[in-house]
Specification:
Blueprint lengths: L10 E3 L9 E8 L4 E8 L12 E5 L8 H4 L3 H11 L6 E5 L18 H16 L9 E6 L1 H12 L6 E5 L23 H4 L1 H5 L11 E6 L5 H13 L5 E5 L5 H22 L1
Parallel strand pairs: 4-5, 4-6, 6-7, 7-8, 8-9
Antiparallel strand pairs: 1-2, 2-3, 3-5
Length: 275
């Protein structure tokens, strides 16, 4: 554990002797959210002595929470397999809740809770406090599905100097798409262009440097397929480098669990170029 000044007033941690498959569960008092928040963490044995250990943050979708990527998508098992194969360097896998606002926070700032700052500032801070080899020099890579893709790609556009790479699966591309899913009204959500549109964020509305490497993918039976294709075409027209892939699949865990392999291999390629 690092000895820097604690960011959180309280941190509750599961007993590693009880947690299954190397997963550890944290609950913290988040200053950004003004309430408790949760993170599922996976640090494979190969990562425990790696200096400046890269941090891969996986963001869940609407209706989900911190446990979904591990316990519905087996993300930790996919990461462990790719690390063993050498396709992915050792990483810490961080899987946070979205702030637990209504059906989904969008990973944006709200009037009374900042879900964006929770992800971009506080989740890495938790890793630095609780994982000895995570430091301020650790690369930060973001990925997400659906609402989580909306968060990961927007944050890459808003914080390009802090994010090493970003990826999305079945991403939502515009804040208006939330209205068909969430029960609550979005009246207190940020209305900044980069908080309403992935394209606005990636075209540099608020960015402060060149974009990090970006990849997004979508299943051909996904209801957001055309939105993903349009984002791809718009980025092509704007000359913004990115990778885009399509495969068989719908907007469900069967697709996301399988497609995470390509996301983590993409992160592996980015990290291998840096290391």
């Amino acid at each position: 554990m690092n000895t820097t000044r604690p960011h959180f007033r309280t941190i509750e941690q599961s007993d590693p002797a009880i947690a299954a498959n190397g997963l550890t569960f944290f609950t913290v008092k988040s200053p950004a959210l003004g309430r408790r928040a949760d993170v599922t963490v996976f640090v494979p044995p190969a990562a425990r002595d790696v200096a400046d250990l890269p941090m891969v943050v996986l963001l869940h979708g609407v209706f989900g929470s911190h446990w979904a990527w591990a316990l519905k998508g087996a993300a930790h098992l996919t990461a462990a397999r790719l690390i063993a194969e050498g396709a992915l360097p050792p990483v810490a896998l961080l899987m946070p809740s979205d702030g637990l606002w209504g059906d989904g926070s969008g990973y944006v700032a709200h009037a009374d809770a900042d879900a964006e700052r929770w992800i971009i500032d506080e989740v890495p801070a938790l890793a630095r406090e609780m994982i000895a080899t995570c430091t301020k020099r650790s690369p930060l890579l973001l990925a997400g599905l659906s609402m989580g893709g909306f968060g990961a790609l927007r944050l890459a556009g808003k914080y390009p100097q802090r994010i090493t790479a970003a990826a999305a699966l079945s991403t939502m591309t515009d804040v208006g798409q939330f209205d068909r899913l969430i029960e609550e009204r979005r009246g207190d959500w940020s209305t900044a262009p980069a908080d309403r549109s992935v394209l606005a964020a990636l075209t540099g509305v608020t960015g402060d440097g060149p974009l990090p490497p970006i990849r997004f993918a979508c299943g051909r039976d996904d209801p957001y397929l055309e939105a993903n294709r349009e984002l791809h075409r718009a980025l092509q027209r704007g000359g913004i480098p990115h990778q885009y892939a399509e495969d068989d699949g719908d907007h469900d865990w069967s697709y996301w669990a399988r497609a995470l392999d390509g996301t983590l291999r993409f992160f592996g390629d980015v990290l291998h170029e840096r290391l």
